[in-house]
Design a protein that fits this description.
The chain is 55% helix and 0% strand. The chain is an all-alpha fold. The chain is globular, with a radius of gyration of 19 Å.
Length: 306
Amino acid sequence: MPTRRSFARLPALPLALALVAATPSAVRWGDAGHRIVGELAARALPADMPAFFRNAGADLAWLNPEPDRWRDFGEQNIDPALGSGSGFDHFVDFEGVPDDAFKAKDRYEYLAAIKAAGFDHKVGFLPFRITELAQTLRVDFRLWRAAVDEGVKRRLEARIINDAGILGHYVADGANPHHTTIHHNGWVGPNPDGYATDTRMHGRFEAVYVQSHLAVADVAPLVTAPAAVAPNIREATMAYLRTSAAQLRPLYDLDKVEKFDTNTTAATHKAFVAARLAAGATMLRDLWWTAWVTSGQPTPGRPPRE
């Protein structure tokens, strides 16, 4: 059915929760969750990844929260273009998108397909944002492979680390089931299972709980799968996001048993969140690895001019 989503997806947390951070990113995965994903993805890279990339783990972790830092409310008060536009890159509402729309050539045809199907257009671009950035990273690596001048190579390395770090943000967002649904901040509409409807749930789960309960050491043992090359980046991205979406009801079920917040004690809750962060780190590592490996493969030629 058609859906509606406002950019102002998460209200400010009360002062009592200020421990999670005083930055604009505090009400998403929060700085802690994003950094965990970035750090563990970098740690899990194969030895065959270029050394400059493997040695950039601290930068890749720091860059992971970066797109949330851009969502600065003071800047949006100067001109709302930054917030109103970029906010839609962080999520996708699967309930509001006909399956065929994901086969669209690009995000613009995607919007046209959604509109043609009679759905609300505010359903998010997350699959396209991840795919676009992974492709950008592959181009970066391809240029790096071809560069002869050492100065050019160093500049490309800076570009690669930045693009890889920003890609990491959106991959980490996709690990949270809240970023794949209209039920992103409390259940909306019919609610026969009695799930939480408070508009603090997203922040309670993604920022407050993670900041107070999770550390790198809790997630690292779960990032064990060997690096894999995705045959098709878009298809791999869609599979990843749909797997995350399938965890939505388990997330709400856990919250129903015991709310996610600073006082949560259930081990099941910690295991669930650690698994989601590990899934994000694994997927991010695999997209980085895919971009590198496939950048060395032959590419299709430029299409003929019409």
